[in-house]
Design goal:
77% of the residues lie in helices and 0% in strands. The protein starts with a helix and ends with a helix. The protein is an all-alpha fold. The protein contains 21 helices and no strands. Helix 4 packs across helix 17 and helix 8 crosses helix 18. It is globular.
Length: 444
């Protein structure tokens, strides 16, 4: 029976998770009005936005809101603007060169460099998947009362989602992700309505303030928010999935495609900003304003939320949003893994195998951590996953900005000196801040 079941499993990489299988599959009829073209190009940004609202972001946002109220909201806004700029470079690179970042690295760098970049990118995907495993397991624990260890085991079965979508179109994945993002957003809209935040104070928190970073702990949280927001594997993913739309080689058509894809990304990442800001605002209004300034992890936040707000619905919505956040990243993580493997190694394996490998490698530290240290390990492992992602980020930004400014690769679409200067500034700033974050985590 088992042999018969295994024989039915796909033996090749298939749509919608294999980049080469879905490239150029979303057709655009000639003569479409602008708004219809925009709808056709809408979707890839949603898959990118998922990475910016995964469970790893929640812990830093909750701790920042409970300790400092609305004061660090401007850090989330700044991180979102940085993300929009970097993802904009990905759009330009993917559409102009018709190749993804991983493939371009394979074409332009030596084999040792490529293998190093590939290993770094794979580690980032595993770290992100670890956050998804822990987030989904914690959500199942909060919603249904099962142990977190049982929840960790149950997350292994999300491979069935990948098998269920075998051979489907890329637009169906985008529709599923849209539904999950709207579920998360709706949950937080209701929670904010229940808790009644001080919107004037929240608006003031969006204004950059050096005084808000007056101590080392606030700075540490600010860097943690930045590290949890910008995902390194998203840079590889975005350069690939923008190529699902059919675009001619004519410069005017490429320019229009870049414009439409940029609008899609700005709108999608604005949704991600709303979710991250909502988490911080919720923590500020429910905990900081009521004297609970020591809430530092997701489980504590859930336990306190219902008593503070005065209704059990708040806790249920919180758990539901957390579950949707964890599951939405399952789809994008599988696609990103295929993009990286195919681009760097010219290797394609069945999507369910790719998912099992990534999830298996994420389950090992999750299972060991929860088994040895109990439920308290969830918060520590979530922070560890964000530190790993922070460490990987410069290794993705550097080739992105170098290739995006290369005229042999980009032609007339190569970025100008202003964008290059901004990219270098962000690269150096993020590298230094993340180096400090990693140092503090392991040494301080």
């Amino acid at each position: 029976m088992i042999r018969s079941l295994l024989a039915r499993l796909p033996r090749t990489a298939t749509a919608p998770f294999c980049p080469s299988e879905v490239r150029g599959t979303v057709q655009l009829a000639p003569g479409l009005p602008f708004w219809k073209k925009l709808l056709k190009f809408a979707g890839p940004g949603l898959l990118i936005a998922v990475g910016y609202m995964d469970p790893g972001n929640w812990a830093t946002d909750i701790e920042a809101g409970s300790k400092y109220g609305y004061a660090l909201l401007f850090v989330i806004l700044s991180s979102s603007l940085i993300a929009i700029f970097l993802q904009g470079l990905c759009i330009r690179l993917g559409i102009a060169s018709r190749r993804d970042l991983a493939r371009l690295c394979r074409d332009h760098y030596s084999r040792p460099v490529n293998l190093t970049l590939w290993a770094m990118a794979e580690l980032a995907i595993i770290a992100c998947d670890l956050a998804e495993v822990l987030g989904a397991a914690l959500a199942l624990h909060l919603l249904f009362g099962c142990s977190i260890l049982t929840g960790v085991v149950l997350t292994a079965f999300d491979t069935l989602i990948v098998l269920g979508l075998k051979g489907k179109g890329f637009r169906q994945v985008e529709a599923i992700v849209l539904g999950l993002i709207m579920t998360i957003s709706l949950c937080f809209v209701v929670q904010l309505w229940l808790v009644g935040p001080d919107f004037a104070a929240a608006a003031a928190g969006l204004v950059p303030s050096g005084a808000a970073l007056h101590d080392a702990e606030a700075l540490y949280l600010a860097i943690g928010i930045l590290g949890a927001t910008v995902m390194p594997h998203n840079l590889y993913l975005h350069t690939s999935i923008v190529q699902t739309r059919v675009v001619s080689d004519h410069p005017a058509d490429k320019r229009e495609a870049i414009q439409l894809s940029t609008i899609d990304t700005v709108v999608s990442l604005s949704l991600a900003f709303f979710v991250n800001a909502a988490i911080l605002v919720l923590a500020a209004a429910a905990f900081h304003a009521n004297g609970h300034s020591d809430v530092a992890d997701i489980q504590d936040a859930h336990q306190l939320l219902s008593p503070v707000v005065g209704t059990a619905a708040a806790g249920v919505l919180f758990g539901l949003a957390l579950l949707a956040a964890g599951q939405s990243s399952t789809l994008t993580g599988t696609i990103a893994g295929q993009v990286i493997m195919e681009g760097f190694l010219n290797l394609k394996i069945p999507c369910w195998q790719r998912r099992l490998i990534t999830r298996g490698l994420a389950l090992i530290p999750a299972f060991i951590g929860v088994s040895l240290w109990g439920e308290g390990a969830v918060g520590k492992l979530l922070v560890l996953s964000q530190v790993v992602l922070s460490f990987q980020l410069p290794f993705a930004i550097y080739p992105l900005m170098r290739l995006a400014s290369n005229r042999k690769v980009m032609g007339e679409f190569a970025i100008g000196w202003v964008s290059q200067a901004l990219a270098w500034f962000l690269f150096l700033m993020i590298s230094m801040l993340n180096a400090w974050l990693v140092f503090r985590f392991f040494v301080a």
